[in-house]
Design brief:
The structure is a single chain. By secondary structure, this protein is an alpha/beta fold. The chain has one domain: Protein-Tyrosine Phosphatase, Chain A (Alpha-Beta Complex). Helices cover 33% and strands 20% of the residues. The chain is built from 4 helices and 5 strands; from the N terminus they run βαβαβαβαβ. A 5-stranded parallel beta sheet has the order 1-5-2-3-4. Helix 1 packs parallel to helix 2. The relative contact order is 0.28.
């Protein structure tokens, strides 16, 4: 628990299987205001484009309050919808959270280690 948020930090490794498992488990958790912060998955080679799109499609089937996508791979699938945000890198999301903080939420943070998503903890 940090401030008014409960945070689940899983930012050491990410691949399609672990990302889907984390999202599915998170969707089953009790909470009124669930937020997902997803960073790019690295080392997917030729499958990167399709795998990032598949994760976005999976998230769209789940009922989260807000979703923050971080990274250039997710950014290739950028679209506009209420409660959905895309950031080119972690620093840009960090600045956003300084201006518009998240409060009273259950938050899943998941992404590859190279995204350095752990720096977001001080703003959550």
């Amino acid at each position: 628990m940090k401030k008014s948020n409960k945070i689940i930090m899983d930012a050491y490794n990410a691949n399609p299987t672990s990302m889907n498992a984390a999202l599915e488990n998170f969707s089953l958790m009790k909470g009124d205001h669930k937020i997902v912060i997803l960073g790019d998955m690295f080392e997917l080679g030729d499958q990167s484009f399709n795998e990032h799109k598949a994760i976005i499609d999976s998230v769209n089937l789940l009922n989260f309050s807000s979703v923050y996508y971080v990274g250039q791979h997710f950014g290739k699938h950028k679209y506009f919808s209420e409660g959905v945000f895309f950031f080119e890198n972690t620093n840009l999301l960090q600045r956003h959270l300084q201006l518009i903080p998240i409060n009273n939420s259950l938050i899943l943070v998941k992404g590859s280690r190279g995204m350095s998503l752990e720096v977001l903890l001080q703003y959550l």
